[in-house]
Design brief:
Blueprint (H helix, E strand, L loop, with lengths): L7 E4 L2 E9 L12 H4 L4 E8 L3 H7 L21 E11 L5 E7 L2 E2 L2 E5 L2 E6 L6 E4 L6 E9 L2 H4 L10 E2 L16 E3 L2 E3 L4 E2 L3 E7 L2 E13 L4 E11 L8 E9 L2 E8 L4 E8 L16 E9 L2 E10 L4 E5 L11 E5 L2 E3 L1 E6 L9 H14 L4 E4 L8 H10 L2 E5 L5 E2 L4 H18 L5 E5 L4 H7 L10 H14 L5 E2 L19 E4 L9 H4 L5 E5 L7 H7 L12 H5 L14 H14 L6 H25 L6 E4 L22 H9 L3 E5 L6 E8 L5 E9 L5 E9 L2 E9 L6 E9 L2 E9 L6 H11 L8
Parallel strand pairs: 26-27, 26-34, 27-28, 28-30, 30-31, 32-33, 33-34
Antiparallel strand pairs: 1-15, 2-3, 2-4, 4-10, 5-9, 5-15, 6-14, 7-8, 7-10, 11-29, 12-13, 16-17, 17-20, 18-19, 18-21, 21-22, 23-24, 24-25, 35-36, 36-39, 37-38, 37-40, 40-41
Helix pairs in contact: 4-5, 6-8, 12-13, 13-14
Length: about 775
Amino acid sequence: MRRMNDWQRTDLAGEWQLCHISHDDFVPGEAPTTLEGMAGYGESGLVGRVPGNFELDLERAGKLPDLFFGTNALLAQRYESTHVFYGRSFVAAPPAGTHPRLVFEGLDTVAEVYLNGRQVAWCENMFVPLEVELDALKEGENQLVVHFWPACVYARRYPVSAGNTAAKYNFESFRLRKAAHMFAWDIMPRIVSCGIYRPVYLEYRPLPRLTQVYLATTQVDVRRRTAQLQLFYEADIPEGELAAYRIEIEGHCGSHAFSAGDRLWFTAGKLKFTAEDALLWWPKGSGEAHLYDVTVTLKKEGRVVDSYRLRAGLRTVELVRSSTTDAFFGGKFHFTVNGRRVFILGTNFVPLDAFHSRDAQRLPQVCELLEDVGCNAIRCWGGNLYEEEALYDFCDEKGILVWQDFMMACAVYPNDDDFGWVMEQEVRTVVRRLRNHPSILVWAGDNEDDMFATFEPFGVDPNRNSITREFIPRVLAYEDPSRPYLPSSPYIDTEGAKVPMEYLTEHHLWGPRDYFRSEYYTGSVCNFASEIGYHGCPSAASVYEFMPRDEAWPWDNNPHWSVHAACPETQMDGTYGGRVRLMANQIKEMFGQVPDNLEDFALASQISQAEAMKFFVELFRTGRWDRTGIIWWNLIDGWPQFSDAVVDYFFRKKLAYHYVKQAQGPVLLAFAPPKDWALRLMAVNDTGRELEICYRVEDYENGSTLLEGTAAVGEDVFCLGQLAYSHGEKKLYRIHWEYEGNSGVSHYLCGNPPFDLEWYRNFLTETYGYTGWKA
């Protein structure tokens, strides 16, 4: 939750002293705990930046080259057994009557914290803030030293069982609460890193004070415009007598308001009240995302002693789900907001940067892309970390729903009480932080861990996973009972375990990643796809930014291409490196051959990706409500690479970005997949009102009109007409439409591959004017 108050802070960001030493030279008991001890220890005399990352500090000091260029990312592995020390002095002047607390919003990951030479805290979790009561704080100058243990070395202290499994680079990550992607992923490099990656400050907190505020919408009546609300509060009050204390809440949205209050009978309690003439919060495409400015105050004898201020959206959410589906889409998986079904058009939100200290500076531009491309949802993926507060604020304001994974991914994690307790503490902290955001739609226990359990040769039953079936839901039942919960994505419950995975109602559609119109995709029967994507090469201009120009071609057996397919080794067909060959195979499948130069390779790959992503979105939109949502993979890269992202690391948009933006518009005209020798032209209207749409379909080759007319199209999907279709005829149809002064243009690629690259290039420049593949 975003808390705004008048508590004073001392910001500790800026330049810190930095030193480091290898684990082989490290002697416990001799490590520095003061600035004087850091001088001359190991490699010292360096300057660290906070917020920051160790490797970035080494780059600035000239000790490492740009890790994002060429094969340099592999050099980071040299520092995986390094102890790192950051230190600084500061002056403290706590206001009278306050209690100073040291707050690290993000420590990565295993760290000892020393104040004036004395250890005051220990951290083993990068996902949650570390807050330290400072009894040893001195008036005047103080010294702060943070000692980061090498995560890869520290992880050896934890037990690993034969039943645990993960990708081969990720076994250190089982019990370390550190972003899993940092150990190598198919979308991120192996840069294990450490550092104070988010703000750090002293906060002077008063007593008495509010410690928890949770405003939940328990019921809405859309017709009567009322909302039933419940405020949970908790306060820290040292006095024994409470009769003089009162809790009050006020909310304002323009001229609309609500208020409630009561005296305190205990230091925790609930206020239940009704918001009349309520303005509800709706997701994008369903209505306005109304937000109330809410103030919760703790008063003593009429005087405000503490307050919370937040922005609240009044809405209810529900997941309607069955375990399995069938060949006729007989299953159910859809979300409702305020009792109305919402068709989900979303993207997976993955790491913004391999170095998370840079997330905050990249986030505003990424948010602009997110709104522009037309998404009404994101899925915060479980191999990442819990995102900056600014992302959730943005989603609240724009009506973008958030599917929030907890941070576990693609593994069979420990299943014991020790790890369960760690996860309980993490989940409780995260939920208390985020639960007041109306954009949060659903909690999910992990990413693909149920799938990984079933992949095991001895068939581990995912329903025996006590972390996602017992520990996490137990916390949610008490901390946020207002939202649905999925133990995994995709979730394989006891009924789902009895059928092939393709009959799950919610699925990740990766499969063989062959031609995008293959039976795997067109024959899929899941109601909801929470992952689906296709490879697309960055432009030649971007490729030349992350590898030497004279070594950028050919792609085959090229170590630069392998490393920038996120392989932490240089062999092309090693783990993840083979994704480059997959990209080439997808090009060959569509065009019959692989180009012999980088610009044409990038063009062919971007066309292949764009047509695939366009097809996936249109497949789901024209098939609703059999299909109820798609969350595609993914918006933007977190480092320079060859991937499924539709925007590369340098913010250059691939062709797929433009195709997806058009396919996710509020009004879409698109052909459904051919059936019975015919193509059906479908109109999808998400404006919430009936529209009169003028449309025309023309043959690209000769410009002849094949279909045209005007139709009144209400909400949902409407068939405008059909054309005869043969898989043996290669054609391009252009689709034009107009409504209320707005216009749209799209196309449909007819027939089976291979297609002619020059033919498509000409169409692309004539129809859309796109040349983004060039250097």
